[in-house]
Amino acid sequence: MTGTTRELAEWVSATCFDELPDDVLARTRTHLLDTLAAVVVGHSRPWTRRVLAYAEEQSPPGNSMVLPAGPRLRPEWAALVNGTAAHGFEIDDYALPGLSHPGCAVVPAALAVAQDLHAVGRRLLTALAIGYEITVRFGRATTPSLTSDRGFHVTSVLGVLGATAAAASLSGLDAATTQSALGLAASMAGGTTEFTRTGGDVKRLHGGFAAAAGVRAAALAGAGLTGPRAAIEGERGFLAGFVEHAAPEELTRGLGRQWMLHDLGIKRWCVCAGLQAPLAVLGELIERHRFGPADIDEIRVGLDGPTLAHVGRLGPRPADLTEAQLSLHHALATKLVLGGNDPVHYAAFERGREPEAVAEVGQRVTGYLDAGADAVFPRRVLATVTVHLSDGRELTATGEAPGSPRKPMSAAQVRAKFDRLTRPVLGERADALLDLVPVDNDLKEVPGQ
After folding, report:
1. Are 119 and 167 in contact (CB under 8 A)?
2. Is 340 in the same domain as 365?
3. Which residues form the MmgE/PrpD C-terminal domain (predicted)?
4. How many domains does the chain have?
5. Which residues pair with 397 in a beta bridge?
6. d(Cα 351, Cα 24) in Å, to the nearest integer?
């Protein structure tokens, strides 16, 4: 593993726009748009408002905007707020097999630094692609051991490295300085998954923590602070500290020749990524057989072990919205009783007025370990849903989520999702966010880019 940190840093500092394949550019734009929608959905949530109040108190005025139209702060603080918003309502992108949520860390960090440096177009897209690639590769190298063996949250632990890479690229750091930035980032990585057991707001902040720390790591390295030369692969380095069973070869195999962005997925519904497949399969059964909550005796959902551990323990009566969006029982009941899993369907829960029928139907949901799903995890997240109806019928189907790497959404579907999520919040003002997504006219050759 000797030299892994250096090799990653050399690639980050040397990669330029002309080396980005067309499919990487297209995917990067799509995920930027999707993350902007996630920020809009999350920006008015109580945890984001509290983080914003804190950031405004601490940050002097700057060039980096708190989205969608908030104050301009220094980059680290804007990244903290926007990252919290992006991860704040369970609608941000994800990766398989890495299981992290790259966009909520990489996009806020890159946008904050880009706005501060007035770096748009080619430089922004290059940095985003680099940040996503680094995050995805670290996911491949550490999943599922990072969470399953140690209980860390992949989004915050890995996101800081992707955010640092994006910020370093935009800042024009050379290889040695980028190596130090990654070393500093490794010491700022953290975040546990105890929220899946005992709740709390902290999960919402993990995207913001990673984004802000990435900006900070690149800035400190640029100011001359150094990190360990072998921060990733060393005897006491990142992999040794966070992972029981690592696959370090995934970090550099084919680096620069084989992009891993095909691992990225886009959520259809604002719940945990592990709940997307069960909701998709249940929706197919409902559409095919036309049944409702009153018709159901029991719903059994077969999942892989790590996903079941992540979403299967909170039950039908979650204590707060975080638990609601991580609960298998509650998510399926919400779809059956309220008709979906978009922000509008969680509004009643937020107001404390959710129908009792949601909890009652949730009590009829059971999760179990499915050997077939377990065998393909984490490359795929499969769900087998069996519905026992009161008329004696048993309906069963197996599938995976729309938007997952094997069932990607089209650009048109992602744009439709953007409109569906942003227009109820911003109306026509949502179109202004599209200016943040570089188009072909933004990508003409510009000196220094």
Report:
1. no
2. yes
3. 269-430
4. 2
5. 385
6. 41
Which tens digit of pLDDT belongs to each residue from 144-154? 999 989 999 99
Q: What CATH number has the domain bearing residue 362?
A: 3.30.1330.120
**Is 417 part of any domain?**
yes
Identify whether the C-beta of residue 153 lies closer than 8 Å to the C-beta of residue 192: yes
Spatial distance between the Cα atoms of 336 and 352, rounded to a whole number of angstroms: 19
The CATH number for 42's domain is 1.10.4100.10
Q: Are residues 185 and 309 in the same domain?
A: no
d(CA 319, CA 45) in angstroms, rounded, equals: 17
Q: What are the tens digits of pLDDT across the range 331-361?
A: 999 999 999 999 999 998 988 999 999 999 9
d(Cα 341, Cα 324) in Å, to the nearest integer? 11
Q: What is the pTM of this model?
A: 0.94
Tokens of 307: 């996903």
Residue range of the domain that includes 289: 273-399
Q: Looking at the structure, do residues 297 and 193 belong to the same domain, yes or no?
A: no
The SS3 assignment for 367 reads strand
Whether 168 and 22 map to the same domain: the answer is: yes
Between CA 34 and CA 436 the distance in angstroms is: 12
In whole angstroms, what is the distance from residue 273 CA to residue 294 CA? 27
Q: Is the peptide bond before 316 cis (omega within 30 degrees of 0)?
A: no
Helical axes 328-338 vs 276-289, angle rounded to 10°: 30
Q: Is residue 404 in some structural domain?
A: no
